[in-house]
Amino acid sequence: MSHETIEQIYIAAVEVFAESGFDQAKMDVIAKRAGVAKGTIYYHFTSKEELFVAMMDQGLEALTDRVRRRIASKPSARMKIEKLIYTQIEFFFEHNKFARLLLSEVWGSAKRQHDFRMHIREYVALIEEVLILGIEDRSFKKLNTVETSFSIFGAISVAVLQELLKQPQRGAEVWMNEAAPRLVETLETLILSGIETK
After folding, report:
1. Phi, psi of 140 (to 5 degrees)
2. What's the pLDDT tens digit per position in 6-54?
3. Among candidates 85, 60, 92, which has minimal Cα distance to 70?
4. How far, in Å, CA of 129 to CA of 134, rounded?
5. What pLDDT does 106 receive?
6. What percentage of the chain reaches a pLDDT higher than 90?
7. Is CATH 1.10.10.60 the right assignment for the domain spanning 1-46?
8. Distance between CA 56 and CA 118 in Å, rounded?
9. Is the pTM of this model over 0.85?
10. How far apart are the first and last CA of the chain?
11. Domain boundaries, the chain
């Protein structure tokens, strides 16, 4: 199966899971939406659960890659955190159905929770790298980097989710123009005041 076909399946799966919820989503509806045979999906994903986890993994990998690229050129830990906050907000507004699924459906089965923790760990490790850099150059306080990284991810995620649920019919461009500046300012103030040494 081509990368393009898998991408079509992921896009269709996000839409169907977002519309119906994990329990009510049907593989034949996902297949129809993706324009493939149901057997094509089952050839690569043995179950709805496996497809859901793979879809979440693909989305988290895309988030991690985007943030890693965006922060790479920033010279200081503070600037990296600022860019990370903005980029996670931007990604979740652009991929708002994925964001809602990520923050609402991953707490289903024990396997789903385990897989989520494994995959989110890669993104959280990226945040942790930035925190360690700031601790080493003494611009950030000495703190528990794992707990702080999860807290930063969670604070950004919940703030965006609240905005997505408040006005679910808005488009990504409207959210970025109207909500993102406010969220960025609030989250930068909250996060940086908690981690900076000054």
Report:
1. -115, 150
2. 888 999 999 898 888 888 899 999 999 998 988 889 888 888 888 888 8
3. 85
4. 9
5. 60
6. 51
7. yes
8. 11
9. yes
10. 54
11. 1-46, 53-195
